[in-house]
Design a protein that fits this description.
8 helices, 5-stranded parallel beta sheet, 359 residues, alpha/beta, globular, 6-stranded antiparallel β-barrel
Length: 359
């Protein structure tokens, strides 16, 4: 019998093909769907479950049956609520814009699932992410870009630890997306043509502000002032949780030309408005560092730097300014550096490391 691997199955085509490929490669495969929805009412779960709703369980179970592998649903509700949902709300209340997928990947999909899987005697966990796990000559593990550039998910996985990477398989990272669907169809998997899930799984209607109001109640900041950087009042905003850096739509400011959110000031409950050029900057500071391809950053280094999931990347010089902080200077100005988002550093198509943007 081959080595045992627990595959996190969302009911989508990518994780289903991951399970199929690993079984073909001789692994002893177990399928698991992570139960993260908070409401027990089936209609609510179905409407709001996103990638882990009841239909996801049904689809994953059907795929597991087609592959003839054991399948389980594991309860991770508490871990998800604490590390993802509560974190998401808290960050927005601070005037920041979090990335819940990064928190979910590190603390739920990996930390919690990996611990339980290793306890069950598994050697690895696997997912359908578009990324590749590589062991480098220096012995460290790093994520390399996937074969599908447009689908690459390394950015959202920058926070994984060396221990987690050493026990991770990502078989679909070697393939183009079209080929993954083709493999699924050839293997007769029932989800071969299922559309990809795009929204945040616990906010399927994308109405972040309403979700935060439901979760945080009277902690939600009230309406306040739109101001210029010099403090001139331009009008009233709906509450800082409605806005993010670089936002243009939904401001309802009649100034005769497009304007943008350039800063959120939770301490004064102000949203700063500026021109398009005010949204660009040449530097940022980050903390909450995680290194992958290198153990640390001993000296100034030029790296390709991504400041959001959809960012193509820009070259920057990075250097440490403290045990858990890096200052980053871009060679060309970048748009909408957003506190709370990740900044990820690449070299030779691999992740060197990254952190969370502070300013």
């Amino acid at each position: 019998m081959g080595k045992k691997v627990v595959v996190g199955m969302s009911g989508g085509v990518d994780s289903s093909v991951a399970a199929y490929l690993l079984k073909k490669q001789g692994y002893d495969v177990i399928g698991v769907t992570m139960q993260i929805w908070q409401d027990e009412d089936p209609s609510v779960v179905e409407e709001n479950g996103g990638c882990c709703g009841l239909s996801a369980v049904d689809d994953a179970r059907r795929v597991a049956a087609a592959l003839d592998i054991p399948y389980y649903v594991m309860n991770f509700k508490q871990e998800f609520k604490k590390n993802v949902m509560d974190y998401f709300v808290t960050e927005y209340l601070k005037g920041r814009t979090p990335n819940p997928c990064i928190a979910c990947n590190r603390y739920v999909k990996w930390e919690s699932l990996l611990q339980r899987s290793l306890a069950l005697g598994a050697d690895y966990i696997a997912t359908g992410h578009y990324a590749r796990v590589k062991q480098l000559e220096n012995g460290r593990y790093a994520l390399a870009l996937s074969a599908t550039a447009g689908k690459d998910q390394t950015y959202a996985l920058f926070n994984l630890t060396q221990h987690q990477l050493a026990h991770t398989l990502m078989p679909v990272g070697e393939y183009e997306k079209d080929r993954i669907r083709q493999i699924a169809a050839e293997a007769g998997l029932p989800v071969a043509h299922k559309p990809d899930s795009m929204e945040i799984c616990f906010i399927p209607d994308n109405d972040y502000a309403s979700f935060i109001e439901r979760e945080a109640g009277n902690q939600v900041p009230p309406a306040g002032n739109f101001v210029t950087k010099d403090g001139e009042i331009l009008g009233q905003h709906k509450g800082i949780t409605h806005y993010t850096i670089g936002q243009r739509k939904g401001l309802n400011l009649a100034l005769g030309h497009p304007v943008f959110v350039t800063e959120i000031r939770p301490e004064t409950n102000e949203v700063v408005i500026g021109e398009n050029e005010d949204v660009f900057t040449s530097q940022l500071d980050c903390t909450n560092l995680n290194f992958m391809g290198i153990p640390d950053l001993p000296e100034r280094r030029r790296v390709l730097t991504k400041i959001r999931y959809s960012h193509k990347g820009e070259y920057a010089w990075i250097e440490k300014t403290g045990p858990d902080s890096i200052h980053c200077e871009f060679e060309k100005p970048v748009r909408a550096v957003t506190p709370g988002q990740a900044v990820v550093f690449y070299e030779n198509d691999m992740i060197l490391g990254g952190g969370i943007i502070q300013k």
